[in-house]
Automatic annotation (TrEMBL):
SUPFAM superfamilies: Prokaryotic SH3-related domain (SSF82057), Zinc beta-ribbon (SSF57783)
Sections of the chain in a coiled coil: none
Entry similarity comment: Belongs to the YjdM family.
Secretion signal span: none
One family name in Pfam for this protein: YjdM
Every Protein YjdM N-terminal domain range: 4-33
Record domain Protein YjdM C-terminal: where: 44-113
Organism lineage: Bacteria, Bacillati, Actinomycetota, Actinomycetes, Mycobacteriales
Protein's organism: Nocardia camponoti
Protein name, as recorded: Alkylphosphonate utilization protein
Domain of life from the UniProt record: Bacteria
Amino acid sequence: MSDSLPPCPACACEYTYELGALLVCPECAHEWEPKTADAGDDVIRDSVGNVLADGDTVTVIKTLKVKGSPTGIKAGTKVRNIRLVQGVGDHDIDCKVDGIGPMQLKSSVVKKV
């Protein structure tokens, strides 16, 4: 069982074990969230953990203020044909919102349809 689990990042102990959603080191008591094998640094997930890909359709989960727009983007707005990018800060979705225009969104404020 410990063969498939990574060693402790704090003390390099190889006897780590799972405790719910966390990994635990029995020697130093360090707890951390595991990185899944399919979730490298380049995987982008939505607000509920679904993996996003280019061309997906997403729904905005909360009302967003947009500079230069009196209404902004309302919760429930569908955004089609997204493109994943390494944007400014943590904005990682490049898209075109109907009525607003092209912009970048954070993956934490959208949900995959």
